[in-house]
Design brief:
The protein has 206 residues and is of the alpha/beta class. Helices cover 28% and strands 24% of the residues. A seven-stranded mixed sheet has the order 5-6-4-3-7-9-11, with helices on both faces. The longest helix is centred in the N-terminal third of the chain and has 14 residues, at 38-51. The radius of gyration is 17 Å and the shape is globular. Bound molecules: 1-O-pyrophosphono-5-O-phosphono-alpha-D-ribofuranose. GO terms for molecular function: glycosyltransferase activity.
């Protein structure tokens, strides 16, 4: 059931997120349009940072590719370093590797440099969006294997799929789309009512 969270349920910048125009091989949603617009990007960061208040971490681990944008911005604001977790075959240093399957059903490999941090390091994992949770689970594994501590998971949106919901039960999760809001319901249905009036020009830099 929808829970009215007042202004928190009405984050104006969600309306800038683009629908898929390329068909089922692609994600249903493209949040990157939020990044284009200075006001939207700053408001998104401010909302996430407000909810991260009290969450302690030593480094932000950003997931390839779009988690780099959000993760690096949050790391800079919180004055910590940034650790890229990359799709396989890109890093020219020693790496640890996991396989994961994401929303597309494709199995891919993901790598993190080895070593990346000392045991006990607190890592905040950031990705743009979580659907099945497969990608995030892979990143959690990589951190655990180097004896890091996952201090939280951050994304713009996380669908209430079974594995993603399990992540909410087992970790501190901060998402711009708040659980039990109308945006969350729409996200679960993989269509936003704002798509009907979507205009790419609304996201243009001011
Ligand atoms: O929860 P899952 O089902 O695993 O899917 C979520 C992943 O898919 C999207 O990225 P994508 O792989 O499309 O790559 P991109 O970041 O390069 O756009 C998203 O940013 C997550 O990384």
């Amino acid at each position: 059931m929808t829970q009215d969270k007042g202004p928190r349920d009405d984050r104006w910048y969600f309306k800038l997120m683009s629908p898929n125009t390329k068909g089922p091989k692609f994600a249903w949603l493209d949040p990157t349009s939020i990044y284009i617009n200075q006001r939207a990007f700053q408001d998104l960061l401010a909302d996430l940072l407000a909810d991260l208040d009290g969450v302690e971490f030593d480094v932000v681990g950003g997931l390839d590719a779009m988690g780099f944008v959000l993760g690096a911005a949050l790391a800079a604001r919180r004055d910590v370093g940034f650790l890229p977790i990359r799709k396989a075959g890109k890093l020219c240093v020693d790496t640890d590797k996991v396989s994961f399957t994401n929303y597309s059903g494709r199995t891919q490999d993901m790598e993190m440099r080895l070593p990346a941090f000392a045991p006990g390091t607190r890592v905040l994992l950031v990705d743009q969006w979580i659907e099945t949770g497969g990608t995030m689970e892979g990143a959690i594994d990589l951190v655990a294997r180097q004896k890091g501590v996952v201090s939280g998971l951050v994304a713009i949106a996380m669908e209430d799929t079974p594995r993603a919901s399990e992540l909410r039960d087992t970790h501190t999760v901060v998402t711009a789309i708040q659980p039990a809001t109308k945006w969350q319901e729409e996200c679960n249905e993989q269509t936003l009512s704002s798509f009907a009036s979507y205009d790419a020009r609304d996201a243009f830099p001011i």
